[in-house]
């Protein structure tokens, strides 16, 4: 993990546009959400305002007329067409699919940039384009948009099914139809665990498929097959790297967010915010907001590091598979560290 982190840091240092690249997909998502909210408001405004039917006598005092009115006191409601629910479901599903699609495009572009660095022998080769990120974006738009859209669609379908089942469970619980016996509860918990496992497997498979799409330029299913085969052949190494990597990246996000908290607290502890009209009665809310924003920003940029590490690992595994256990295109830093053949074999095959 330390080796891959060093190489990932080297890649980000060489391909500097990767540092600011996360702002592009999230900016596109922000613009998309503005249009989506506008479309949702127009969709909800398509109903007709109808006066409620009054079956009982009721009266209300009209402030404008200054008299009691017994004609229109039942209020109004909005009636939509029968296809309104279908339109709402389609609109929500489209929002989730588009979100997954933009995030998948972001992952593929990052993976393509890192793969260009790896497969060109790192910084020693003049074959790396000067604007690697934009070259990766160009390849994505020319060759891989359909594969990325298909992968995001599969994730959206699985997540929608899980959401539907969760909604049914909540309705049954409200209507007191939740299973009381141990067998029913066990079946429910097992189904929930199974759905979560399916969701995690699909997201992980899609993530690795996006990396192989960027590396090999294959279609979605071909890239998924290659990625799955590489992971199964190197499952021990990738498993260790994923566990250790997740812990290290989480600690990194936590350190960044806690640093934001400390900085915010020290700033609020100055004389400026302790007197006059700028006085803060309690620093709890500003500090909490700073912690949340710090964690979000850290997650945004650490995602680049995480995707870089995953791309380096799969590229190394693919390189080793193509050259009979010897990584031919590995960057110099990786070659120097893994120059021992026994270490290479141990990392690529795991303990026997």
Automatic annotation (TrEMBL):
Localization (cell): Cell membrane; Membrane
Transmembrane segments: 23-44, 101-120, 140-165, 209-227, 247-268, 280-305
Origin: domain of life: Eukaryota
The keyword Metal-binding appears for this protein: no
Record-level GO cellular component terms: plasma membrane
Major subcellular site: membrane
GO molecular function terms noted in the UniProt entry: transmembrane transporter activity
Family to which this protein belongs: Belongs to the CTL (choline transporter-like) family.
Function: Choline transporter.
Protein name according to UniProt: Choline transporter-like protein
Lineage of the organism: Eukaryota, Viridiplantae, Streptophyta, Embryophyta, Tracheophyta
